[in-house]
Amino acid sequence: MSVLGFALVQFSDLIETMASSKKVITKEEWEKKLNDVKIRKEDMNKLVMNFLVTEGYVEAAEKFRVESGTEPDIDLATITDRMAVKKAVQSGNVEDAIEKVNDLNPEILDTNPELFFHLQQQRMIELIRNGRLEEALEFAQEELAPRGEENQSFLEELEKTVALLAFEDVSNCPVGDLLDMSQRLKTASEVNAAILTSQSHEKDPKLPSLLKMLIWAQNQLDEKAVYPRINDLASAKLEDPVV
Q: What are the residue boundaries of the CTLH domain, all occurrences included (predicted)?
């Protein structure tokens, strides 16, 4: 059983134990119950390594591999290549990013038309950002319009992007958010996920899912008992129950 599944079972058992009536659970009682939940150190190490690999912290992953003896499930050298693609998109060098993706695995874009469209859309956005409006319009007509004719959702996104050309002051443009850094980050995240999938690796780290599971479990238990909650996930400090 995975560490996530094991944790879910343990939280569910805790909830079921306290479900008979809403009662006050002291900090001492709660800590004893938590201590009874046994998770192997090896599983915790795999959880940390999964986060480092998925998020692209190659140096930290290498040091953690040496210190903990935990082997990553992919070649750490591929993380550097993946992060180079992500950085290229985040800095607006979309053509360079596309070349790097094709060097990694040309099937990624060949088999993912939505991702390729979004990269091309980002190229057009960067042309507009740099004031190359005529070039952006020509690029839209030659590269994006044909794809929009094949897919209604692509067409709608293309229309939104072309709308940027109609405003001299994009701060007053209803789709001006396309020029925000958040749009670059969104596209970079999509590329990152596609590369991870092509490497048979999860596209999302498990640790955030585990934290979401903790929040869900606490919300469920709130209906059954008053107990020491973890309100600050960063410190994981157990707060005294408020009666």
A: 78-135
Residue-wise pLDDT for 153-200, tens only, equals 999 999 999 999 988 887 778 999 999 999 999 999 999 999 999 999
Give the integer Cα–Cα distance in Å for 108 and 171. 35
Say how many CA atoms lie within 13 Å of 124 toward its Cβ: 27
SS3 95: helix
| Residue 238 · residue 27 · CB < 8 Å | yes
> Is the pLDDT at 16 greater than 70, yes or no?
no
Phi and psi angles of residue 226, each rounded to the nearest 5 degrees, phi first: -105, 120
Q: Which two tokens stand for residue 188?
A: 């970079």
Task: Yes or no: say if 39 and 31 are a contact pair by the CB < 8 Å rule.
Answer: no
**Residues 8, 213 contacting (CB under 8 angstroms):** yes
Other CB atoms within 10 Å distance of the CB of residue 88: 20
Residues with Cβ within 8 Å of residue 219, at least 6 apart in sequence: none
C-alpha 77: how far from chain center: 21
Q: Give the pTM.
A: 0.77
- pLDDT, tens only, 92-102: 999 999 999 99
Q: What angle do CA 214, 216, 222 make, to 5 degrees?
A: 100
The reported pLDDT for the residue numbered 2 is: 59
User: Crossing angle of helices 113-129/152-162, nearest 10°?
Assistant: 10
Quick one: which H or E segment has residue 222?
Answer: helix 206-222
Q: Are 187 and 89 within 8 A, CB to CB? A: yes
